Amino acid sequence: MCAKSTYFYQIYLDLATMKNYTIPSVYLFLITGFITCSCEFFSPNKDRSDVFEDVPTRVDFPSGRIDEASGLADSRTIRGYLWVHNDSGNPAELFLLSHDGKDLRSYPTPGMENRDWEDISIGPGPTTGVSYVYVADFGNNNANPDVTTYTIYRVPELRSLNAGFEASTVETIKYRYPDGPHDAETLLVDPKTKDIFIVSKDFTGASLYRLPFPQATNEVITAELAGPVPGVVLATGGDVSADGREVIVRTYSNVYYWKRIDKETIGQMLTQKPLKTLPYQLEPQGEAVSFDADMNGYFTLSEKRQGLPVTLNYYKRK
Question: What global pTM score does this model have?
Fold first, then answer.
């Protein structure tokens, strides 16, 4: 099977696991993909290994508090901890989870509302030298036409485990799509340009949208459509490495990987086919993914589903 055919098969796996998507239609999509397949791939120069362990290190953590984990981001200011959040129907609060799973702490977020939080990112922002947490309240199941405005919150990262968030430091970025409502679960912040990118979660394939820096916080802005994200269907999470040179986007069954070349933008990178898929062992309902702050590997985390056990998983770079 050629590499591009493999992508169509992986897309099939994502579609086949979703309700309301008939098997015959999935087969038709798959067959069409194989017929149009070719094996030419974009191969950037390698200056850091893009090979990761096939089997992750699995860590148990306290259950009952982040059973609907939807976003994951490794802290830059409190090393050894990950920011985690639940999705809709839960309080507006963020959690810090230690890498070993033994310490889980909650932090209320005054000034924020959890309508449908779906992802979280760490990146720079308006003040030079400050690390910010970006919380994406942009979930919209079934692309409800009544939901036309979406929110991304930006707030400085806490600098100690004993600190707390303050409403006065929260910035609210409101946006709309240029082509109508979308569901989304993937937020990316470019550490080089401070641009914000959103990957839509669509049955017909993912699209990439951009909110260029500086983002207005006093009006609703219209996102720019950068283009389709080839080979990705039903994106559930993503991350940009701390140096901005690597991007991962995950689905329920795969983790896709891109590597930046020279002055390439994230928009240019993600509108090309992924360089490869990374190792990933299926989770009950995997939605969250994050590089670690030192770029030595990546974490994945799942929501609980049907009573199946959930672990924090780490795939180390070789």
Answer: 0.86
